[in-house]
Amino acid sequence: MAYSEKVMDHFANPRNVGEIKDASGIGEVGNSKCGDIMKMYIKVEGNVITECKFKTFGCGAAIATSSMATELIKGKTIDEALKLTNKAVMEALDGLPPVKVHCSVLAEQAIKAALSDYYTRQGIDPEPIVGKIEECDHDHGCSCGEC
Amino acid sequence: MRKIYADNAATTALSPKVLEKMMPYLTTVYGNPSSLYEIGAEAKKAVENARAKIASLIGAKSPNEIYFTSGGSEADNWAIKGMCRALKQKGKNHIITSKFEHHAVLHTCKALEKEGFEVTYLDVYENGIVKVEDVKNAIKDTTALVTIMYANNEIGTIQPISQIGAICRENRVIFHTDAVQAMGNVHINVEEQNIDMLSLTGHKFHGPKGCGALYIRRGVRPDVLIDGGAQERTRRAGTENVAGIVGLAEALELAISTMEERNARLTKMRDRLIDGLLKIERSRVNGDRTNRLPGNINMCFEGIEGESLLLRLDMAGISASSGSACTSGDLDPSHVLLSIGLPHEIAHGSMRLSFSDDNTEEDVDYILEKVPVIVDYLRQMSPLWEKIKEEERNS
């Protein structure tokens, strides 16, 4: 299994690592049993995501996809961020090995989870807008639909 | 940048001395050992000398008890499938093994389960060592084979092979051991230890890849592995890997003749490295600390994942391995780490370093300098570590 240069770059020098103290939304997906947890922080001003930070426990691909996902939504509107797919994250990283596609799904879901939290804080039911955030069900393997 | 190869349990560098002995058989002495003319006869002589050398090095009674194979996995498959299928006709359909065998043994046992064999997987407890009593209690009239590895490939724990051998002999049960990791690192004598079959492979002790052997005690008759020519006493046909066989014997002789000095040196290095790494908070050693291979270090660091640790080690010039799920292409972390009772989230954060003759005290210094920094870096970005620290504060 080999990672692309882009993946290695984002793993070696991850962008936007950390927390946002006064975040507008925080989302966490994955679990320690599966070996990856992603936590995303977003700061929303007006309709724009002005800041995005992450913390990730996981493999090289998990860290690289988190990093790339934050780069892809930073400065974007909420509507644009909602359209972010795992495929876009993968393409931006010049691909992932098949067993790691799951990490890009997790990154997409982490962004969605942060947006859900943002809507919930506004008193808006996030599900009709963001959709359901799938949880990893370890006993039956990953439910990301890609594994 | 400094480069440290610390994954000798995966494979080792070919020794230049071994390569030198192999060279004639890769160049001028290319004859088929089954041929009559000079370069054939010369090749044959080299194969038989290697066979005799290996027999003597492992304490076998006769060179005829050594059968060359393509490596450890083939030897394990042959020993287990061959023996069990041969004994099935006599009403023996039970196998005893352990939970943390190499996949070459475990998956072979799983395959035999599909053929109707019953398999007992013995516990290895927290220290990673099979209890002799458990072997004794598991043996029954239908037991065809006991197969227990000599030393574990991930955590390096050494099993009580002599005692298990004695119990098997007492109960007239065939005893096989996968000695792939142990060979050349511990004193092995198949006669004294009542071992009936033993698997070994050359590339774990600076020999070439693609050549191993199965010791089969005289009178023990597993089914033929490959039908064909008369090679390997008609049990495993196919033109011999002459250069590989020569290299295997040479490497084993070198490994055994230098074992005591090396083990003293590596044990000291291993213990210093483990003590140093244990200073990292929430770290642990996996497997018994003393009853383990001299070059094996296997540790877990809570709150981080093994693959990212390995990638960062690689960036620092250190080659290591991990039992994390992400390095196995599987969802679960290593079966070995789970078998010694580690929870999934801790097993994901494992690191194995394995030393050989080529490693030095300077390597230990360098690793001790790099690992704590990398672990700390990964923990700083880990939400799991954040949770662990929060729980710590609350309790």
| Percent of residues in helices of chain B | 40-55%
Question: Quaternary state, please?
Answer: heterodimer
Helix content of chain A: 40-55%
For the largest beta-sheet of chain A, the strand count, sense and barrel status come to:
3 strands, antiparallel
Using DSSP, what is the number of strands of chain B?
A: 12
The dominant shape of chain A is globular
Mean pLDDT across the residues of chain B is: 97
Query: What is the count of DSSP helices of chain B, taking H or I runs of 4+ residues?
Result: 14
- Side by side, the strands of the main sheet of chain B go 2-8-7-6-5-3-4
Order of helices and strands of chain A: HEEEHHHHH
Beta-strand content estimate of chain B: 5-15%
Shape type of chain B: globular
What does the model show?
- The complex is a heterodimer of chains A (147) and B (395).
- Chain A has 147 residues and is α+β, with helices and mostly antiparallel strands.
- In chain A, 40% of the residues lie in helices and 18% in strands.
- Chain A has a 3-stranded antiparallel sheet with strand order 1-2-3.
- Residues 137-141 of chain A have low confidence and may be disordered.
- The longest helix of chain B has 20 residues, at 38-57.
- The two termini of chain B are 43 Å apart.
- Classes of the chains: A alpha+beta (147), B alpha/beta (395).
- The A-B interface holds A 1, 8, 11-12, 14, 17-18, 28, 32-39, 55-63, 99-100, 138, 141-142, 147 and B 303-308, 311, 315, 324-326, 329, 331, 333, 343-345, 348, 380-386.
Give a quick summary of the entry.
The complex is a heterodimer of chains A (147) and B (395). With 147 residues, chain A is α+β, with helices and mostly antiparallel strands.
Compile the SSE list and pairings.
The complex is a heterodimer of chains A (147) and B (395).
Chain A: H1 5-12, E1 25-31, E2 36-45, E3 48-57, H2 60-73, H3 78-82, H4 86-92, H5 101-121, H6 127-130
Antiparallel strand pairs in A: 1-2, 2-3
Chain B: E1 4-5, H1 16-26, H2 38-57, E2 66-69, H3 72-88, E3 94-98, H4 103-114, E4 118-122, H5 132-138, E5 143-147, H6 161-170, E6 174-178, E7 197-201, E8 212-216, H7 242-257, H8 259-277, E9 283-285, E10 296-301, H9 306-315, E11 318-319, H10 325-328, H11 335-339, H12 344-347, E12 350-354, H13 361-380, H14 383-394
Parallel strand pairs in B: 1-11, 3-4, 3-5, 5-6, 6-7
Antiparallel strand pairs in B: 2-8, 7-8, 9-10, 10-12
